[in-house]
Design goal:
This protein has 273 residues and is an alpha/beta fold. The protein is 42% helix and 14% strand. The protein has eleven helices and nine strands. It has a six-stranded parallel beta sheet, with helices on both faces. β1, α3 and β2 form a beta-alpha-beta unit. α3 (58-66) crosses α11 (259-271). The longest helix is centred in the N-terminal third of the chain and has 31 residues, at 2-32. The termini are far apart.
């Protein structure tokens, strides 16, 4: 009789253990699923521009992550429009599901060329970003309307082994030129950590623009001294922007000074049908 009871206890114990294992495996499956699979939200891929780096998206990222969006902030090489676009395009291939592709400043030129018929890219968001037509350059676009004061603020070019030249903004002029609506302490950190762009990138012609076949959204600062507001408005109208936001008093780094507005526009692009 005791032997029978012991067998029953062992049998019940095994069933309990197996049940717990099944529950644990199911829970782990839920945990390790990509956020896009769990919430069915598009992945937001953000591409920074010249003189910036991926951390410039931190304020926007925190807003998007809090709302359950999968996010990737790509480290833009800043070596040339085509090569940078090819790099971003390769990163997009690893993203499962739909994508909202976001570009700041020169990063706008990159996303314009990075879609490469990737059917997963459902929207483009230009954050104070260039949206060139085929054959246009960032340098030509920024000077199409008056107002850009970038050139006089550039430091002496840094010579590269291949004969090219890297460009930086003078640290003493960075705050007023690039980030006038940020605290001085923040602008100093940005000036110290700025990423250089090869000079030839500003004169490299763009390829066929993705904004002709992919819906686009635009946001920019009215006091942008790198790319004048008139240029942004022109590019947004030409691209038949779904929504264009001009942020009053904002500088070129509108994603840092106004992360709420930028995140909100990205979300509009993400939920658009």
């Amino acid at each position: 009789m005791n032997r029978f009871i012991r067998k029953n206890h062992i049998h019940l114990l095994l069933i309990t253990v197996l049940s717990l294992v099944v529950i644990l495996i199911s829970s782990l499956g839920t945990i390790i699923q990509p956020a896009s699979a769990q919430g069915n939200k598009p992945t937001v891929v953000l591409v920074h521009g010249a003189f910036a780096e991926s951390a410039s998206w931190n304020g926007v990222l925190s807003k998007l992550i809090a709302k359950g969006y999968p996010t990737v902030a790509v480290a833009n090489p800043l070596r040339g429009v085509k090569s940078d676009a090819d790099y971003v395009a390769s990163a997009l291939k690893d993203v499962k599901g739909s994508i909202v592709l976001v570009g700041h400043s020169y990063g706008g030129s990159v996303i314009t060329n990075a879609v490469n018929n990737n059917k997963n890219v459902k929207a483009l968001v230009y954050v104070a970003g260039f949206a060139p037509e085929a054959g246009e350059t960032a340098g030509e676009l920024s000077g199409r309307y008056p107002g850009s004061t970038l050139l006089p603020t550039l430091a002496p070019p840094v010579a590269l082994p291949d004969g090219g030249k890297d460009l930086y903004i003078q640290q003493s002029k960075f705050h007023a030129q690039f980030a006038a609506d940020l605290p001085t302490s923040d602008a100093k950190l940005m000036a110290s950590t700025q990423r250089p762009i090869v000079a030839a990138a500003f004169d490299e012609a763009s390829g066929a623009p993705a904004w002709k076949s992919t819906p686009s959204w635009f946001i920019y600062g009215e006091r942008d001294l790198n790319i004048p507001a008139a240029v942004h408005a022109f590019m947004a109208k030409r691209a038949n922007s779904k929504e264009t936001v001009a942020v009053k008093g904002a500088s070129h780094v509108v994603m840092i000074s106004h992360p709420d507005a930028v995140a909100k526009l990205i979300e509009h692009a993400a939920i658009a049908k």
